[in-house]
Amino acid sequence: MTEKGFEPLSSQLGIPGTSYRLQLGLINEKWASRILKGNNVIDSYVYKDEDVEGGFPNQNLIVGWVLRTVAIPNINPHQVMKTTQALMKQARENKDKQKVVAPLSETKDVELEKVPEGEIKRPKASGWVKEEATQGTSEEEKRMAFQESVKAKKEGEMIQSQKGRQLHTIPSADQDQEEKAGKVFCPFCGKDLTFVYCPFCGKKLPHN
User: Fold this and answer.
1) Is the pTM of this model over 0.70?
2) What are the pLDDT digits (tens) for 85-111?
3) CA distance 187 to 192
4) What is the CA radius of gyration of the chain?
5) Does the pLDDT value for residue 63 go beyond 90?
6) DSSP code of 46?
7) How many CB atoms lie within 10 A of CB 160?
8) What is the rounded CA–CA span in Å between residue 63 and residue 104?
9) Are 184 and 192 in contact (CB under 8 A)?
10) Which residue of 26, 36, 107, 198 could cross-link 7, Cys pair, CB 3.0 to 4.6 Å?
11) Which of 47, 14, 19 is nearest to 32 (CA)?
């Protein structure tokens, strides 16, 4: 069997009791095994579809092929089976790690379809948006604005102070005379009376 196109899926393990090594891999996407001695490949074998169970070659068939190929007297089939099992474990792990990558030649450039400008729907801003202050405000304008804010603050404090403090008002002389105009006073004792005779001194009050 030709060695061309062998893809190794395991390392090369020595066959107990011999100077040969065994390795598992693929040839043309089919399971294969090969026996090596030194740098030379003694033989290789590609397993048929009916020799593969559960995606992997039957281990008994591998052992049988090794015994027929090596043909060394007193070789221990049990030791060959252990070697085969170890190689099969490596082959399973490496095969699971293989990833299918599409060739670059099979990839196609996808061109996005251009949408007309008139069909593009953009969200409309709603509500009132506060305009930012002009960045070019001069230092003089900043100073005047600061003075006005301080002045307004002081005026507000004065108004609050006046509201919190209520002063008693003193009646004026005109108000005092208006209050006395409608009253009658006794000329002798100065009492405020509206009677004909003073109830305090008994004198007759003069009436105009």
Assistant:
1) no
2) 999 999 999 888 875 554 555 555 555
3) 10
4) 60
5) yes
6) E
7) 10
8) 41
9) yes
10) 26
11) 47
